[in-house]
Amino acid sequence: MAAPRHRLPKGTFDILPAEQGARRRLLERAAELLGGAGYGRIETPAFEETELFSRGVGGSTDIVRKEMFNFTDRADRPLTLRPEGTAAVARAYLEHGMHKLAQPVKLWYAGAFFRAESPQAGRFRQFNQIGAEAIGSPSPLLDAELIISLDDLLRGLGVGGLELRLASLGSAATRLAYRDELRAYLRRNEAALGAEVQARIDENPLRAFDSDHPGTREVMVAAPTLLQRLSDRDAERFDAVRAALDSAGVAYRLDGSLVRGLDYYTDTVFEFNCDRLGAQSGIAGGGRYDGLIELLGGAPTPGVGWALGIERVLIALDAAPQRPRIDAFVVATQPPLREVAFALVIELRRAGLAVDLDLADRSAKGQFKQADRSGARVAIILGEDGTETVRELRTGKQRPLERDRVAAQIAALRDSAAG
Length: 419
Hints:
Elements: H1 20-36, E1 40-41, E2 47-49, H2 50-56, H3 62-67, E3 70-72, E4 78-81, H4 86-95, E5 105-114, E6 126-135, H5 140-157, E7 162-168, H6 172-188, H7 195-199, H8 214-221, H9 232-248, E8 253-254, E9 266-274, E10 282-288, H10 292-295, E11 303-309, H11 310-317, E12 328-332, H12 338-350, E13 355-357, H13 364-374, E14 378-382, E15 388-392, E16 398-400, H14 406-418
Parallel strand pairs: 1-5, 7-8, 12-13, 12-14
Antiparallel strand pairs: 2-4, 3-4, 5-6, 6-11, 7-9, 9-10, 10-11, 14-15, 15-16
Helix pairs in contact: 1-5, 5-9
């Protein structure tokens, strides 16, 4: 009788052992780069009170309107699986009194996030992100620092085909005046707009820039942009960000249609696109959110940050699955030697080596095949005549096992084989 098949929910996935190496390297590089810039790691819960996102992200956004996984607990409290990381970090900043620390407070995070989107290449309902946030300083150099760190991370990993799109949404006052102008423009062209854009002209007219509707896209080609309406203060600030990027050699393209998908953004916004990802080309992005902390009940506090999609980065890198690294595989040629082999494996593991052995009662021939499959650099062979030898699996060379310095011998052979 066949075993029942259980399928994962659409848009979710298992991360298998062979796929862990590339993810680990990405996280290690992010930790090294961000840690070197003074960012400390923070972890927030996988679910929060629904109000955090409805207030922080914005009730008019697609995320809040139709992409959140909401549920109630036993006390009938509304909760939500986190769809993004910035609101949660802002909540933690407030809850733990981080405003009392030296500002800005620099934080980074990594974890799983959830959105009820239509699954497609590079877009999942459960996905993983790395994010960085700096809260407590209005300096345009902080915007530049975060953009440069993201550029360094992506390019340092070898992600090709990147383009940085850069824009400014200006201050709250600038946006209010601009929204009135944009609403008037959309009303004049309403017949050509998609139904969803028409329904949100009053509530969130900027979302028209993100529409895939052909008529809407045609209308938006000639639409006024915030970049054309920045105040002197806004333009001066944006020029400072651009000057810092220019000084660091970070290339970018100004894009007045870039508005991002979250309501909390102000001033600088940016997005990295990768031509290796097809239609879902956004690989990372972020911006400034000077009103978010206040929106969540705190004092007016500036902030800026970014997030990158781990799966999208790995797709762009075309990261090949890799087997776990094994330094040595111990082969016991006779059943009575298995206990000796097991003790040797434990000894070598405690010495810091990656060592394995057969635990499925294979024959000696089967153990050698398993040693080859494991990717081990060397095999330690315990012979039935009491001999103990080491075989370099790549060259076939053999030598006696030096019992008085076995760990050092295996480490040296591993390093030699690697070279």
